[in-house]
Amino acid sequence: MNIAVVGTGYVGLVSGACFSEMGINVTCVDIDKQKIDNLRKGIITIYEPNLTDMVIKNHKAGRLHFTTDLKECLKEVQVVFCAVGTPPDEDGSADLSYVLDVARTMGQNIDKYTMFVTKSTVPVGTWQKVKSVIKDEIDKRGIDVEFDVASNPEFLKEGAAIKDFMSPDRIVVGIENERAKQIMDKLYKPFTLNHYRMIYTDIPSAEMIKYASNAMLATRISFMNEIANLCDLVGADVNMVRQGIGSDSRIGNKFLYPGCGYGGSCFPKDVKALIHTATDNGYTMQILQAVENVNNYQKGIVFDKLNKVFDSNLNGKTIAIWGLSFKPETDDMREAPSLVVIEKLLAAGCKVKTYDPVAMDECRRRIGDKVEYGSDMYDALKDANALLLLTEWKEFRMPTWRRVKELMANRVVIDGRNIYDQKEMYDNGFIYLHI
After folding, report:
1. pLDDT tens profile 373-394
2. Domain spanning 2-201, CATH architecture
3. Could you give the CA distance from residue 102 to residue 99 in angstroms, rounded to a whole number?
4. For this structure, is 266 an active site residue?
């Protein structure tokens, strides 16, 4: 089977590479010529474990192709996966212009049955707009060509995207007819040989499942952060509380880890978009508004703890930061807590020294030389008055505390991810604060 994947960002490139790994002939399409040229050379700017090797392997094998011309490849493909960006507008709504551009190109050029599958995260009802655009363009040409529209939302975790795609928890597909179902069954059969995880729904429900899933996970994170902040005030241990409630089978233990706020490309954007969809339909999402408010507050909590340690006198202090990406195993800094913390530190007159295993180039791209970049985790600690742990990369989990003490000017550690043992920190002579 021949398919096209439009958009070579995170979702599109991972999807294209994984489909080609299963023997499907895939053409990845992007309007960015430089990006396409780089992909043909095996140069990949997205950091995701094992992705580069998979792309190079399948491109060399002739199963994975790259082009800027969607019109040309429409002659050969049966399915077009749309994985273009849907960035938030100022009001929080999703910008669908790129999605509709793909639909328009398809309607202007197909001359045989083709299926349009939305992988981009889009608001409920987008499928009707896509369908209308394709049909209008076909009608303008005065021809009769059959097509279908479907929704196939992605549930990939950055840092584990290849594993998630190759061995998914579930594959959600919104369809209108049996023909579309048979095509999607054929495409995903190699991924479901051991366990049948296909969930077929109507298209609006599939679009909603994506938003509802991310909103629920964001809600669990903000809920635990609220509980952690209250534990701090009443003397309870949030880690013990987490274990206690997570052992309840009705609740479970996932996404109950308190921290300094969630970030990334999905949770913040999708929560905003779902709130906006509700508003457009005359409904107020009160819980999700609270989830968003809690998360915005939580991103500043590490700074607030630091400020309290130094009696609101941070001017001239040197502060080290371990971790810049919003989570480990990615260089993604979209909506990362580190950006909020750095902005507050600089405004308070601090000198900021940072280290992250993979995200420092991305940080340079975003904020330039406003901060210093360490050559390793210890280099960032030289003469620091405090260390802020913002991302729980594995290499940060067991530092040599003797070396840390020798490098730092003051023994202050604020743990934004609760990865260190409080007693061990006290025994090593640190002022230690956590969530």
Report:
1. 999 999 999 999 999 999 999 9
2. 3-Layer(aba) Sandwich (3.40)
3. 5
4. yes
